[in-house]
Write a structure and sequence with these properties.
This protein has 395 residues and is α+β, with helices and mostly antiparallel strands. 34% of the residues lie in helices and 22% in strands. It has 11 helices and 17 strands. Strands 6, 7, 8, 9, 15 and 16 form a 6-stranded antiparallel beta sheet that branches. A 3-stranded antiparallel beta sheet has the order 1-3-4, with helices on one face. Helix 2 (14-37) runs antiparallel to helix 3 (44-59), helix 4 packs antiparallel against helix 5 (162-175) and helix 7 crosses helix 8 (285-297). The two termini are 30 Å apart.
């Protein structure tokens, strides 16, 4: 065992759990602020800036005495609308997108405290209300993605395999005549590592099935579970939109030739280490755009390309961070999902999956419910984010 492995901090330590929960709390609050701020005629750039500013502001208020502790953005705020799948976080110099009534809006962001990462993503329809719920394909895809996330919360637990989650996602999506985005990965999280080795794959191709490693979840692991479901074929493509989100690849080395590139890369290392960042975070956007080119060309930086499904289709995303505690899963991030806003004529067909989603996440709560003999409510439950039941499980 190397020194790095022997010193790896995990959620077996209370302080590490505290740092994850603090990051999760900030991520949830920033997400709520952005959902509230997302209105008709509001620009996406302004929302992305607000999200990133609040993350930096809130993380700046904690562990003030720990001068050397890194904390802040683990994934810059991205707001991808309708058929845009992910990673849309434009620069001020890029063409902006202004939100419209009935847009399907996806907000994706991440926070870290001392390198312990809390990621979250949430989808909703602009202008929808209890008096005016949404139906049709938008309702289908949002419900499909939501139930996929709920199934994953109950399946990502010690002893289960990653393939069980992949299979459940396919079945749930098909029940709503939708398709998971092909080849998308959910990653294990470790300190300072957003893309850990263990992964869950969505809708793999035959080749990806062969290549993707089957693995079991273990206690004290942490995962960012990322669900992306489409009303279309589930094939995400780069449509030529400027990439603005990158992360450093610590395994690559190259002697940069251009002075601008060297200055840019030095700032990346100093400010972001191996966390994803946006070019919007640099004071001189023009120099950042120039500097990133040589770094990306020689693979010192990995791009998070802006991906699109076919025009006219809709993509919904839900992402949560879960700590696999000895007593059960502890979900530390999620948005507030209001089931009654989405009226789909479709439902989950598989009785086992239906029962799974209706089941309690917490073992302790299951015991309580048996004692109290609480009558079960009809229909699938509306989950509203990180509940006490989930948080209790890891105490």
């Amino acid at each position: 065992m190397s020194d790095d492995e022997s010193q790896e901090q995990t959620i077996a330590e209370d302080l590490v759990v505290t740092k994850y929960k603090m990051g999760g709390d900030i991520a949830n609050r920033v997400l709520k602020m952005l959902v509230d701020a997302a209105r008709v005629d509001v620009s996406v750039v302004s929302l992305c800036e607000k999200g990133d500013e609040m993350i930096m502001e809130e993380t700046g208020k904690i562990f003030k005495k720990e001068k050397d502790m890194k904390k802040g953005i683990a994934f810059p705020t991205c707001i991808s609308v309708n058929n845009c799948v992910c990673h849309y976080s434009p620069l001020k110099s890029d063409p902006d997108y202004v939100l419209k009534e009935d847009d399907l809006v996806k907000i994706d962001l991440g926070v870290h405290v001392d390198g312990f990462i809390a990621n979250v993503a949430h989808s909703f329809i602009l202008g929808v209300s209890k008096d005016s719920p949404v139906s049709g394909r938008k309702a289908d895809v949002i419900k499909a993605a939501h139930y996929c996330a709920e199934a994953a919360l109950r399946l990502v637990k010690p002893g289960n395999q990653n393939t069980q989650v992949t299979e459940a996602w396919n079945k749930i999506a098909q029940s709503f005549n939708c398709t998971p985005i092909e080849g998308m990965l959910s990653h294990q999280l470790k300190q300072h590592v957003i893309d850990g080795e263990k992964t869950i794959i969505q809708n793999p191709t035959d080749q990806q099935k062969k290549d993707h490693e089957k693995t079991a979840f273990e206690v004290h692991e942490v995962y960012a579970v990322d669900v992306l479901i489409s009303t279309g074929e589930g094939k995400a493509k780069d449509a030529g939109q400027r990439t603005t989100v990158y992360k450093r690849d610590p395994t690559q080395q190259y002697g940069l030739k251009m002075k601008t590139s060297r200055a840019f890369f030095s700032e990346v290392e100093r400010r972001f280490d191996a966390m994803p960042f946006t070019l919007r975070a640099f004071e001189d956007e023009k120099k950042a755009r120039m500097g990133v080119m040589e770094c990306a060309k020689h693979e010192l930086l990995q791009p998070f390309s802006v991906l699109y499904e076919k025009e006219g289709e809709f993509v919904a995303q839900f992402k949560f961070t879960v700590l696999l505690m000895p007593n059960g899963p502890m979900r530390i991030t999620s948005g507030i999902f209001e089931n009654e806003l989405y009226k789909s004529e479709l439902d989950i067909k598989d009785p086992d999956l239906k029962a799974l989603i209706q089941s309690s996440v917490s073992r302790r709560n299951q015991k309580r419910r048996k004692k109290k003999k609480v009558a079960s409510q009809g229909g699938l439950p509306a989950t509203t984010g990180s509940t006490n039941e989930e948080n209790e499980t890891g105490d």
